Amino acid sequence: MIGTYDHIQFPTETELSSQFGVSRSVTREAVKMLTAKGLLTSRPRQGTAVSDRLSWHLLDVDVLHWLMDGRFSAGLFKHMNEVCIGVEPEAAALAAQHAALHERDVIEKKLEDLRAAPCATNDWLEAEIAVRLEILRASNNPFFMQFGHLISWVLRHSDRIAREVGGRAAKLGEYVAVVNGIKRGDSAAARAAMRHVVG
Description:
The chain is mainly alpha-helical. 68% of the residues lie in helices and 4% in strands. It is built from ten helices and two strands, in the order H-H-E-E-H-H-H-H-H-H-H-H. The chain is elongated.
């Protein structure tokens, strides 16, 4: 479960301006930006407070990067991985249905890059991420495309965990099955193969 903050009180504009040596207008704009991203709430006569984490706009690129740059959390990683399991098989199925010929060619090229990369290396990881991102794009669903940052982060951390504790990493043959399903326009096969990859 994502933790809560119970509306921890936030410093005033004057305190922030003094602490960081910036003008109050700069501080005000920063607070507005954080409020727009759901990280802060502002109430009349109550001041500004840190929002409950469930209110944060977790798919906002900035919020996602801040979460990624923070202390590693197994719970957060689990939640993010669950999103990948929910999104990527359907993106593969949509790619099989809707990808244009040139998009299928790009996915095939990324698969060749993966095939050429030595397994369990950084080159493999980067090629693996590239395949997954191209499949998201080929889904032609703009909402699915927004998950690219999250999926890249999950893959990078999964790779690190697999190297440290000997966990299972996706194999080339599993990606070949996904890409073959997309190339044939077989959405059921592409979905099932990607579910196997992500799972």
